[in-house]
Structure formats: structure tokens, C-alpha cells
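URGENT: need a sanity check before tomorrow's submission.

F., can you look over the DUF6332 family protein record below? I want to be sure the sequence and structure line up before it goes out.
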Amino acid sequence: MTPDQMRRDAVTVEIGYAVVTGALLAAAVFCLVASPVLLLEPSRAVQRGLLVAASSAAGLAFAVRAVRVLWRFGRRHPRRGRPDEGPHGSAYRAEGTAPRRGGGCAGPGR
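C-alpha cells as predicted:
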């Protein structure tokens, strides 16, 4: 297995982990916020408000969890450039040619 394939597999596993744990957290948050609807007998308007709040909180919890997991994964495994890229992203330099001096674009007369 190539390092590139291993990296893709690791990213795939991490995305799956972020989605599953985000969904579990969202379900728990929804149940927690919506529990007064089952335990108490609030009016129809309060029930609707609690369910909207529960849905919003669950969606936010999912998003925060997924972003946090993926952000931490990205910081632990920084993405490396291609081996043939230079420090400024130049894709290829012909073999045997020296880098330009002057640190920038070649203007007229250079």
C-alpha cells in the first residue's frame, strides 16, 4: 500500500468517525433538550418551541463535533506538498537548471 493510499484511508476513517460521533452527540443533545416534552405536559406552543430548540441544538452539536474532530486530525497530520514542488508551489523544474536569483518573477529584460 502506498503512502498516498494510506493517507486517503486515514482521512476516510477519520471522516466516518467524525460523522458517527457527531450523530451520536446530536441524538443525545436532542433527547436532552426535548425531554421536557415527554416528562412534562407543556402547551402545544411550548412543545413546538422545545422541539425546534432541540433540533437546532442537535444540528449545532453535530457540526461542532465533526469540525473539531477533522480539525484535530488535520493538525496531527499536516498535509505535505508533492515531492517535486518547490517552496512556492512550482510544480516542476527541469533537471540541471539552477533556480533563478532575485526571488521573483522574470520581468522584461531579465
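My own read: Residues 3-76 form one domain. The CA atoms of residues 7 and 77 lie 9 Å apart. If you see anything odd, call me.
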